[in-house]
Specification:
Blueprint: H1 4-10, H2 16-22, E1 30-32, E2 38-40, E3 53-59, H3 69-82, E4 87-91, H4 96-100, E5 108-109, E6 112-115, H5 117-121, H6 127-147, E7 154-159, E8 163-165, E9 175-177, E10 188-190, E11 192-194, H7 199-206, H8 210-218, E12 221-225, E13 230-232, H9 233-236, H10 239-245, E14 253-257, E15 262-265, H11 280-289, E16 292-296, H12 301-316, E17 322-327, H13 329-335, H14 348-367, E18 372-377, H15 384-396, E19 400-404, H16 406-409, H17 415-425, H18 441-453, E20 457-460, H19 462-474, E21 481-484, E22 504-513, E23 518-523, E24 542-543, E25 549-550
Parallel strand pairs: 3-16, 3-17, 4-15, 4-16, 8-11, 17-18, 18-19, 20-22, 21-23
Antiparallel strand pairs: 1-2, 2-14, 5-6, 6-14, 7-12, 9-10, 12-13, 14-15, 22-23, 24-25
Length: 553
């Protein structure tokens, strides 16, 4: 059996200018990065005769067994193209942290991939490097400000802006800077986040144009004065420099699938520590040009889909016309208590227990009032009895369920799913937000934790309680909440799989992200700088004398 990278290597790519032409974009509308990648110059003119439908692909909670959400996403996009609909896939850019860590690449798999796979998973068009440089330039400017007079009285102990690196590097979680004498800066304790956790990443993905990006950067809170008053980038006068470094990164990237469906891959915040969606600009651009825009939100629906609907949707000003929840037999059995080693066998008892996880995600999406379908991502080890059990469960809940074989058959394997999605997008939807944004941050956290996660109550640390009082005084209450928690569980404990109920959900602290336009609530022991596993994916990779890469997923 061929690996994903071997399949991608054999793909016959179409020149990117021809992919752009499919969308009505000329040579002046794109900036080519080689033969098969380009950036799209904004704004683009909307195509008036298109359907402009939006499909959101999400999933059950992820497991080490894999769900294949991106694979189904790409397969669905190719299938819609095969049905002669102008389709654009809108995805996030992969971070090199997971690529070289444990998760691997993020461009789909098998015959449902976005290509060129190696480029997208590695340096791509340099967006992540630009974000890293902009973030760290701001950090350097802040440290220089502390050293050169510090006119506003910014307290070095209360600087909350961190440096970032697009690497899983636990050694950088806590660092001390400014050591070595008076000319080396002001000593202070700080740390690094991974680049997808940077507020600049969230800003890039929520900005509507370069002017909006600059305005959002100016609102970033970098720390507090000795009198505990917030200090913003705009007060320091650093927003122009940051925006300059992001002038190209803000432009969406155009590539293609193995089936030659246009794909806009742009932005990459994680859903467990940020809002987990590709850029508003990328999604809007796709919507303007296509009959169907197929996009995804990171990890399970409890994280990515909730944040898409409560954080991204108001900025995008477009509600999904249909939702696809991806599930696999393997992942459901793992959620039901099966071991990884047992997943090659039939485990009906564990599968039945694991269906509780799927059912909660179904309930959550139905709470928003959106038409949905469950896609069973097919694996070769699935048995007829296992498939039937999932189908019977969904039918009992009056939810459509389709078997999809995107990995092995590409678009041909997801035609039934595509036809169902087309039908769903013609239905009337009555979208209902999860919470009123005018509620207090405490009430919004409780709404997410109890209504989506299944918690019985929320426990706020003393620090979190004090921050809530401070936010109220500062007038920061009217912002959405972005909960940072483990992706593996509805709880803040990654070992509690399935669909726990009546548990206590723990919030340890809040981080204001005024530039992004939300407040992050850190749950449990969630970290914003991941570490590498015992055997990182990096040790399985190699490159030959001709530059051919193997082992990259």
């Amino acid at each position: 059996m061929l690996t994903d990278i071997e399949i991608a290597d054999q793909a016959q790519l179409t020149p990117i200018k021809d992919i752009a032409s499919q969308l009505g974009l000329g040579e002046d509308d794109i900036e080519q990065y080689g033969k098969y990648k380009a950036k799209i110059n904004l704004p683009v003119k909307a195509t008036p005769d298109k359907r402009h439908k939006l499909v959101l692909v999400t999933s059950i909670n992820p497991t080490p067994a894999g769900e294949g959400k991106s694979t189904v996403l790409v397969g669905l996009g190719d299938a819609l193209s095969l049905l002669n609909y102008q389709t654009v896939i809108a995805m996030r850019e992969p971070s090199m942290g997971p690529v070289f860590g444990m998760k691997g690449g993020a461009t789909g798999g098998g015959y449902s991939q976005v290509v060129p796979m190696e480029d997208i998973n590695l340096h791509f068009t340099g967006d992540f490097h630009a974000l890293t440089s902009a973030n760290n330039t701001l950090a350097a400017l802040i440290d220089n400000y502390l050293m050169r007079g510090n006119a506003l009285g910014l307290d070095p102990r209360r600087v909350i802006w961190k440096r970032v690196e697009d690497v899983n590097d636990r050694a950088l979680r806590n660092v001390v800077t400014g050591l070595g004498g008076i000319m080396q800066g002001v000593p202070r304790q700080t740390g690094f986040d991974i680049t997808p956790a940077s507020e600049l990443m969230a800003i890039l993905c929520l900005a509507t144009d370069l002017s909006d990006l600059k305005a959002r950067v100016s609102r970033i809170v970098v720390g507090y004065t000795y009198d505990k008053e917030p200090v913003t980038v705009g007060q320091l006068g650093f927003e122009e420099a940051v925006a300059i470094l992001l002038k190209d990164a803000i432009k969406p990237n155009l590539v293609q699938t193995i089936g030659h469906t246009p794909a806009i891959v742009h932005g990459g915040p994680f859903a467990n520590i940020a809002h987990g969606c590709n850029s508003v600009l990328a999604t809007k651009t796709a919507l303007q040009l296509a009959d169907y825009t197929v996009t995804e939100a990171g990890f399970g629906a409890d994280l990515g889909a909730e944040k898409f609907l409560d954080i991204k949707r108001p900025v995008l000003d477009k509600t999904p016309d249909a939702v696809v929840i991806v599930a696999t037999v393997r992942a459901l059995e793992y959620n039901g208590g099966a071991t990884l080693q047992a997943l090659k066998d039939e485990n009906l008892a564990e599968l039945k227990e694991g269906l509780k996880n799927l059912n909660r995600h179904i309930d959550n999406m139905q709470r928003y009032g959106l038409p949905l379908v469950v896609a069973i991502n097919h694996f070769a080890t699935d048995t007829a009895a296992e498939i039937k059990l999932i189908e019977d469960n969904c039918k009992a809940r009056k939810v459509k369920v389709i078997l999809a074989d995107a990995w092995a058959k590409g678009g041909q394997g997801t035609l039934d799913l595509a036809k169902e999605v087309v039908a769903l997008t013609e239905q009337e939807a009555a979208f209902t937000p999860l919470y009123d944004v005018k509620l207090t941050p405490k009430e919004k956290v409780e709404a997410i934790a109890t209504k989506v996660y299944g918690a019985g109550q929320v426990a706020f640390s003393k620090k979190a309680q004090n921050q809530l009082k401070q936010f109220e005084k500062l007038g920061w209450n009217d912002l959405p909440i972005c909960i940072a928690k483990t992706q593996y569980s509805f709880t803040d404990d990654q070992t509690k799989l399935g669909a726990p109920t009546d548990f206590t959900f723990h919030i340890r602290e809040f981080v204001p992200k005024l530039g992004a336009g939300f407040i992050v609530a850190l749950a449990g022991n969630m970290l914003t700088m991941p570490g590498l596993p015992k055997e990182p994916a990096a040790v399985k990779m190699s490159i030959d004398a001709n530059g051919k890469i193997t082992g990259l997923f």
